[in-house]
Write a structure and sequence with these properties.
single chain; alpha+beta; Nucleoside Triphosphate Pyrophosphohydrolase; six-stranded mixed β-sheet; 6 strands; globular
């Protein structure tokens, strides 16, 4: 079984007195899907996720999280702490259809600068849009259970570290 290592971030930003996090709506079909199969219907279900991606060779996971957040959301953020590792197995939907054991390390980050959804045209292949999501709503709105658990850890961290 192939192993993959990724990292991602829960970016905190205080807006109008409430905490928000940066979330993405992944581009499930890719830019050429409609042209390749015009009869294919898009899924009506909204999928929201945390920004994340593969750890590059020579890169630390916390560096990956900060880079992926910048690339996928358009915002710069700084490290607060590591939140959790989530582990799962998936089957590649392309090429060899191999089973992959994946570990994703998630970090709590603090917003520094930038405008949400200000991403490069090349990144639109992966990200349909990026948005600020109220932290209180995130456990109900994120699509993946592991990411919902990570956000709950972020909420717990904020409760025990009010200085953030």
């Amino acid at each position: 079984m192939v192993r993959e290592f990724s990292a991602g971030g829960v970016v905190l930003r205080r807006m109008s007195g409430d905490w928000h996090i940066a979330a993405i709506e992944p581009e499930k079909d890719g830019p050429d899907a409609a042209a390749a199969n015009p009869r294919r219907k898009r899924s009506p279900k909204l999928v929201l996720a945390l920004p994340k991606g593969l750890v590059d060779q020579g890169e630390r996971p916390d560096e990956t999280a900060i880079r992926e957040v910048r690339e996928e959301t358009g915002v710069a953020a700084s490290l607060i702490t590591k939140l959790a590792d989530i582990r799962y197995v998936y089957v590649r939907s392309w090429g060899d259809r191999e089973r992959v054991f994946k570990i994703v390390s998630f970090y709590l980050l603090r917003y520094q600068s930038g405008r949400i959804d200000d991403v490069t045209p090349e990144m639109r292949i992966e990200v349909r849009r990026a948005l600020w999501l109220p932290l209180a709503d995130a456990p109900a709105k994120l699509a993946y259970s592991g990411e919902r658990q990570v956000v709950r850890k972020a909420q717990e961290y904020l409760q025990s570290h009010p200085e953030v």
